[in-house]
Amino acid sequence: MTKAILEARNLGKSFGGVRAVDRFEIELKKSELVGLIGPNGAGKSTVFNLLSGAIKPTDGTIHLFGKDITGKKMVDFAQAGIARTFQNIRLLEEQTVFENVLAATHKSANRNFFANLFHTKTWRREEMVLQERVELLLETFSLLDKRNELANNLSYGDQRRVEIVRALATDPEVLFLDEPAAGMNPAEGKELVQLIEQVQKDYNITVVLIEHDMDVVMDLCERILVLDYGKLIFSGTPQEVMASDAVRSAYLGDDLINA
Ligand SMILES: Nc1ncnc2c1ncn2[C@@H]1O[C@H](COP(=O)(O)OP(=O)(O)O)[C@@H](O)[C@H]1O
Ligand SMILES: [Mg+2]
To answer: pLDDT for 58-102, tens place per residue?
Structure first.
């Protein structure tokens, strides 16, 4: 059996009286593609916030590569190989596409402060490697011709893709994507999803995806976790999820797309 790279046990988060996440459990293995679905307000983004260290859990533990990282800072999670995008895009709006992505690589690079300050030979060599990596990623996501545009001036779909490139630029082991196709037209969304699949394979990383379009989730994910009122109500293959009464009643029998 493959060892889990990320494991959360009995994870809980309360905001005042609201129990946003309750007794959540997850075990992620190397290079799997997992879907996280559930109605609005179910706690999906909060789960991502917890698993990426953006917020601290009220209860439970998170282990990365067998090491307890519960309660550590987001930067520690990032350095340990966790990357994520946000439901609401967060880019450096007054900086170019290239600058946005390069800044993300610097966050992950293990830089010596003085080397950075004096721009030594090693620094310059590292910088070139990073810049090449950024260019390759921009090319993969068809953003190379927009490298000098300000993030502010990009279309919504392009901004979403820059966010993903930023996350990938940190060279992550696990990538959390919070509704990456939100606001895109169906064609853009479909293209993006294919790209995610390709990147997941090429870079051999683990991807967890929050996505409302069930066709997309069914197509893409090997297994799906279903959240409702902060609780994990089901976990299984796409087929098992579709056949589950618990999942159906969580969505009140409506089709999952409009949930
Ligand atoms: N920072 C916060 N402060 C207070 N309540 C929050 C906060 N973040 C999320 N919540 C609440 O937690 C619940 C789950 O929210 P969220 O994780 O955003 O759900 P989802 O992403 O599934 O739509 C909601 O009731 C939401 O209002
Ligand atoms: Mg959300």
So the answer is: 999 999 999 999 999 999 999 899 999 988 888 888 899 999 999
In this structure, how many other beta carbons lie within 10 angstroms of the beta carbon of residue 229?
15
Distance from the Cα of residue 207 to its chain's centroid:
7
Q: What is the pTM of this model?
A: 0.89
Is residue 216 very low, low, confident or very high in pLDDT (cuts 50, 70, 90)? confident
Q: Which amino acid is at 176?
A: F
Contact criterion met (CB below 8 Å) for 11 and 52: no
The backbone torsions φ and ψ at residue 33, rounded to the nearest 5 degrees and listed phi first, read -120, 110
Confidence at residue 1, expressed as pLDDT on a 0 to 100 scale: 52
Cβ–Cβ under 8 Å, residues 8 and 50: yes
- Residue identifier of the C-alpha nearest atom 17 of ligand 1: 43
Q: Which ligand is nearest to the CA of 178?
A: 2
First to last CA, the chain: 35
Supply 133's token pair. 């990596």
- The Å distance, Cα 235 to ligand 1 centre, comes to 21
Residues 65/26/216/213 CA torsion (nearest 10 deg): -130
Distance 148 CA to ligand 2 centre (A): 31
CA 237 to CA 233: how far, in whole Å?
A: 14
